[in-house]
Design goal:
The protein is of the alpha+beta class and 185 residues long. It is built from 4 helices and 9 strands; from the N terminus they run βββββαββββααα. Strands 4-5-9-8-7 form a 5-stranded mixed beta sheet.
Length: 185
């Protein structure tokens, strides 16, 4: 909607989605041309607050790890796409529970090319990487907080940040404890 662009500073669109760009071309002595066009930026976005893309990681906050639940929270902007899910050994997982360390590949197909977006699944709270939220995760988070030198796995550290605030702290510990005390609901 902004018609005051200058050629030294063009508008930048970086986020996935569809935009309408209005333009005006003028030169002294010539007729001014007005118009608009749609610009589509293909890619992947998440919906809701329980799933977030962070670089090459797909962070899941609500402890729901079913493939169908995860895929339903993705918006894919593309003329066509293919989604494949695999475990860390490359075995197809398109119909089952996803675990931390599994990955989802989304192939976006357009008339010009195909591009792969590959995300490693991180179940926030699954600090011991066994695919369940349990007392073992509670202990592992406590060990992260206590700076246990034996813990060097980056996926475990990412997963230990159960509330996704960028650090492993007592808040993560409490979130997992409450989840366990509520019977895993």
């Amino acid at each position: 909607g902004n018609t005051k662009y200058d050629l030294d500073k063009l508008p930048m669109f970086k986020n996935v989605g569809e935009y309408v760009v209005n333009y005006k071309i003028e030169k002294t002595g010539l007729q001014t041309i007005y118009g608009s066009n749609k610009v589509k930026i293909y890619g992947v976005k998440t919906t809701g607050s329980s799933l977030r893309i962070d670089g090459n990681y797909l962070k899941i906050k609500d402890f729901k790890t079913n493939y169908t639940d995860i895929i339903s929270k993705l918006n894919i902007y593309a003329p066509s796409h293919t989604i494949l899910a695999h475990d860390k050994n490359g075995v197809d997982k398109n119909t089952s529970t996803m675990f931390t360390g599994d990955y989802i590949s989304i192939y976006i197909h357009s008339a010009l090319n195909s591009k792969e977006f590959k995300y490693t699944v991180v179940i926030l709270g699954d600090a011991n990487l066994d695919g369940k939220i349990s007392a073992l995760d509670y202990v592992r988070i406590k060990n992260h907080i206590m700076k246990d030198p034996e813990i060097k796995d980056s996926l475990s550290l990412l997963s230990a940040d159960a509330n996704d605030d960028g650090k492993v702290s007592a808040l993560d510990y409490v979130r997992i404890k409450n989840h366990i005390m509520d019977g895993g609901k």
